[in-house]
Amino acid sequence: MKAAVFNRYGGNDVVEVRDAPVPVAGPGEVAIKVHAASVNPVDWKVREGQARIFTGSKFPKVLGSECAGEVSDSGTRATKFRQGDRVVMYTSVKRLGAFAEYACTAEATVYPIPEGVTYEQAACLPIAGLTALQSLRDHGKIAAGKKVLINGASGGVGHFAVQIAKVFGAEVTGVCSGRNADFVKGLGADRVIDYGYEDFSRGSESYDLIFDAVSRSSFWNSRQVLAPRGVYVSTLPNATIVAQIVTTLLPGRKARQMWVKPNAADIAWMMDQIKGGKVKVVIEQTYPLDRIRDALAASEAGRTRGKIVVKVV
Fold first, then answer.
1. What's the pLDDT score for residue 255?
2. How far is residue 136's CA from residue 233's CA, in Å, rounded to a whole number?
3. Distance, CA of 281 to CA of 40 (rounded, Å)
4. In a 10 Å sphere around its CB, with 0-12 CB exposed, 13-18 middle and 19+ buried, how is residue 105 labelled?
5. Rounded Cα–Cα distance for residues 276 and 278 (Å)
6. Has this prediction a pTM greater than 0.90?
7. Facing residues of 87 across strands?
8. Residue 122 confidence (pLDDT)
9. Which of 38, 42, 51, 177 fits a 20 to 30 Å CA distance from 155?
10. Cis peptide bond N-terminal to 60, omega within 30
11. Count of Cβ atoms closer than 10 Å to residue 57 Cβ
């Protein structure tokens, strides 16, 4: 099969599309023929070696952590799916392997795709979609009427967060570049702040929840615009862990770090919102597998509206 392989950590030049062995489903595993895979910042961070504590030093590796396609094989003790079933899988940062014609992972992180949801849409959910949902609901305790600020509102995670916050009935302020203001308003944001002209952390508004989807601020910078019992949630755990420990011990404002935990119930919830038209998956750029370097570079540039998808079949 063709796969996006790298033999050492480094820049985009270490990635090449070449032949690799087709993965075989072991006990409790499911293999799929990949139709689409989603690109996330974690992918180029893995390529650079920022996640080597999880990925180790054994090479070659196949990049990619989430993809969607048709079940091609199931190992012993894997009983949930049949050959040909439409599914989305989270291969995880540790295992990788999604940027390929075939991928394989534990059945526990493989989920059905209902009619009305495409492979491309589904492939964007395990990381970006659920990061947005779990950050707002589980860490931020979002509820109707709460004032929510989303930093990085036009990106892969942020564009989901704006829409999910509106599903929960929140009042949403999105922070993005001026060129993306209309896009974020179109997602449902009640107000947009252009970060090129205004620093939200120095504004006069206060928020019940600040979700930093791009981790370009911090709890300490943002706390003056947090409500007395407000919560700051970041997608970059290392930068927030000290603030989380300190604020857990003290009353008042809280800091929370986010680490996505894909699960069937949350995937199903996201699928329902997509089918119901309440959440749309915006895919600005689609690349063939042989242009994976371009896809990674586009993600690394940080200017994409919505998601980047690799079309495999």
1. 83
2. 8
3. 14
4. buried
5. 6
6. yes
7. 69, 112
8. 98
9. 51
10. yes
11. 9
Residue partners of 12: CB distance under 8 A and separation at least 6: 44, 47, 293, 296, 297
Mean pLDDT by 10 residues, the chain (313 residues): 98 97 97 98 95 93 98 96 98 96 98 98 98 97 98 98 98 97 98 96 94 89 93 79 72 87 97 98 97 97 95 91
Q: Which amino acid is at 287?
A: Y
* Residue 272 φ/ψ, nearest 5 degrees: -65, -40
Q: Which two tokens stand for residue 193?
A: 């702040």
**Tokens 């706390």 correspond to what residue?**
223
pLDDT for res 16 = 98
Looking at residue 161, what is its pLDDT?
Answer: 98
Pull the structure tokens for residue 305: 């509206």
Q: CA angle 20-22-27, nearest 5°?
A: 135
